[in-house]
Amino acid sequence: xxxxxxxxxxxxxxxxxxxxxxxxxxxxxxxxxxxxxxxxxxxxxxxxxxxxxxxxxxxxxxxxxxxxxxxxxxxxxxxxxxxxxxxxxxxxxxxxxxxxxxxxxxxxxxxxxxxxxxxxxxxxxxxxxxxxxxxxxxxxxxxxxxxxxxxxxxxxxxxxxxxxx
Length: 165
Fold this sequence. Notes:
By secondary structure, the protein is of the alpha+beta class.
């Protein structure tokens, strides 16, 4: 953590099950758009808790906004979707489904932006799988900062072949 930055993870969230390198095994995202950096909990194949710590040096803050850095709302949604994609990858691996599939964001519903955050904040994502049908998976996600809701939404992911195929 950079000197002077805040860390609002609750003690129960400090345990790290997966670091950045293990996350990269499950999703194709890389910097600067890999928006989760730790997995803390995976429960019963239908819930995942992840986090991302924002640093003053993160490139997004140079442009959004230089004099008042605020983490973009759509990045929270993408962080929740990436968490859901990791959960999908873990579940598929457990089921022996190892063929390469990409998860594409298919829908975003009921989004509520409640609290802006910026450099020094650690965002905790809690994402739950609500239902599946064919290649579609529906999730509910909440982003917390300092145990306060920053963003919440529902979203779906469609599994498909990579664009290269």
